[in-house]
């Protein structure tokens, strides 16, 4: 009986730590514990080595990426569009989610990367199945897109 209690208690600390990590991402900042758990259930770990391409301009948008460790570069379709370096706690794919559902740039790992991936399907399921969660996530998307417009860069998401 004591062993089960200790396992349960340990689980609470692990979940709490994971939720604290997820709150570092602007998209999840305002979610409560239950909502964070719903999101966490949909996240998948992805690893890329330095120099690997995550996706290229024109690829279909399949997932949003959340950087857990490392850095990546997202460059525009043409050299005149420049590039953006994204780091831990940044996400990539929000603007593309609301545009043509195609990647508007190419992402390349600058360092070894540890990412959390949220599929486009899971994103929309979360938004549509839980209105309170959906409002919070869509509001965060608006903040991200607003910052991109303000910063005049397609990839600024800090």
Rg is 17 Å
Order of helices and strands: HHEEEEEEHEEHH
The proportion of strand residues reads 15-25%
| CATH class assignment | Mainly Beta
User: What fraction, in percent, of the residue positions are helical?
Assistant: 40-55%
- SS class: alpha+beta
Which architecture per CATH? Sandwich
Determine the N-to-C terminus distance: 46 Å
Q: In CATH, what is the homologous superfamily?
A: Jelly Rolls
Largest sheet: 4 strands, antiparallel
Tell me what the structure shows.
With 158 residues, this protein is of the alpha+beta class. It has one domain: Jelly Rolls. It contains five helices and eight strands. Strands 1-8-3-6 form a four-stranded antiparallel beta sheet. Helix 1 (2-22) packs across helix 2. The longest helix has 21 residues, at 2-22. The radius of gyration is 17 Å and the shape is globular. It starts with a helix and ends in an 8-residue tail after the last helix.
Can you summarize this structure?
The protein has 158 residues and is of the alpha+beta class. It has helices spanning 2-22, 33-40, 94-98, 120-129, 131-150, and strands at residues 44-48, 53-55, 63-69, 72-76, 83-86, 91-92, 105-109, 113-119. It contains 5 helices and 8 strands; from the N terminus they run H-H-E-E-E-E-E-E-H-E-E-H-H.
């Amino acid at each position: 009986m004591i062993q089960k209690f200790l396992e349960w208690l340990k689980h609470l600390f692990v979940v709490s730590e994971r939720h604290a990590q997820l709150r570092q991402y602007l998209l999840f900042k305002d979610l409560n514990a239950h909502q964070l758990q719903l999101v966490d259930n949909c996240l998948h770990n992805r690893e890329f080595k330095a120099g690997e391409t995550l996706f290229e301009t024109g690829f279909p948008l399949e997932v949003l990426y959340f950087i857990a460790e490392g850095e990546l570069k997202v460059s525009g379709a043409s050299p005149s569009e420049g590039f953006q370096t994204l780091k831990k706690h940044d996400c990539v794919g929000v603007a593309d989610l609301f545009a043509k559902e195609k990647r508007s740039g190419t992402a390349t790992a600058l360092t070894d990367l540890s990412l959390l991936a949220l599929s486009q399907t899971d994103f929309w399921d979360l938004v549509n199945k839980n209105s309170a969660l959906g409002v919070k996530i869509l509001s965060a998307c608006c903040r991200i897109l607003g910052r991109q417009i303000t910063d005049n860069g397609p990839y600024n998401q800090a």
